[in-house]
Design a protein that fits this description.
The protein is of the alpha+beta class and about 280 residues long. About 35% of the residues lie in helices and about 20% in strands.
């Protein structure tokens, strides 16, 4: 069995959907289906029950899933040890803005336990670069938020967080239970500098062109609201400082925490990072 085929199998087994598994592996569905059929022929048993209700693992498929995960994990560890012997066991992680997210704490602990001999270098980025140095080649993998221009990158969603409007506590709208973007249409917003990724800028400005003070960091966003009475968006579960409040925005989609890396990079340390991050951000 080829490791590549086993990775295809694990993707289908975890997604229980050939279309989603194909998207995850960055391939079209027909070659993925052929690979799974070839694997079933090789093992001499059906691995998935396919019906109009969906895809489920057979008993044989469940056994192979456990073995495949263990084998792929061991293969990654071999690559890591070889890299360590060559003096290349390092990984540079780009982190966006506020790195106090408990998901990061869990991920750091899990990664250290799995890769105790790997040196992890951290590069924290401000809000002007949502790829955290990835597009510039400064990091191996980014732990960030979307959306942004993902050309040449693989982007894996880890979690979705609701967002809200950041206001002064004495703002006329502060007494509401919820807000809509239309409630903020005539207000000045804090904005990112010109040249910031357009998809990123558009999301945090509620899909509209805005005017207001230019900010580059989370603390500057808060200070812009506190000093100027402007508005903007922030994560709903971020506790605002004294003098500020956050109200849910009912017509804004959530902000997605993602891991991103160069699609051509096959470094097993990155693959392991993403696997552990997926678990850490779902705990």
């Amino acid at each position: 069995m080829e490791l590549r085929t086993l990775r295809y199998f694990v993707a289908v087994a975890e997604e229980l959907h050939f279309g989603r598994a194909a998207a995850r592996m960055h391939m079209s569905q027909p070659p993925l289906s052929r690979a799974i059929k070839g694997l079933e022929k090789e093992v001499g048993a059906t691995l998935f029950d396919r019906s109009s209700a969906g895809v489920t693992l057979t008993v044989v498929g469940a056994v192979l899933l456990d073995e495949a995960r263990a084998l792929l994990d061991q293969a990654d560890r071999v690559s890591e040890r070889v890299a360590a012997a060559a003096g290349a066991a390092t990984i540079t992680v780009g982190i966006l803005g506020d790195s106090t997210d408990p998901g990061i704490t869990r991920l750091a602990g899990a990664y250290r336990r799995r890769h105790p001999h790997v040196e992890v270098r951290i590069r924290e980025s401000d809000l002007t670069d949502p790829t955290c140095g990835l597009s510039a080649g400064l990091v191996d993998v980014a732990l960030t938020r979307g959306p942004f221009d993902g050309t040449g990158l693989t982007v894996h969603e880890l979690r979705a967080d609701p967002v809200g409007a950041l206001l002064r506590t004495d703002d006329p709208l502060a007494g509401r239970d919820t807000l809509k973007l239309s409630d903020l249409a005539d207000r000045r917003w804090f904005v990112f500098p010109k040249g910031t990724d357009s998809a990123w800028q558009s999301y945090w400005n509620g899909g509209e062109a805005r005017e207001g003070p230019v900010v580059r960091a989370v603390v500057e966003c808060r200070q812009a609201v506190l000093w100027n009475g402007t508005v903007g968006m922030t994560l709903l579960d971020h506790e605002p400082p004294e003098g500020l409040t956050v109200l849910p925005l009912t017509d804004m989609p959530p902000s997605h925490v993602v891991a991103a890396w160069n699609e051509a990079d096959t470094n097993p340390l990155i693959r392991s990072f993403v696997q552990l991050a997926t678990a850490a951000y779902h705990d």
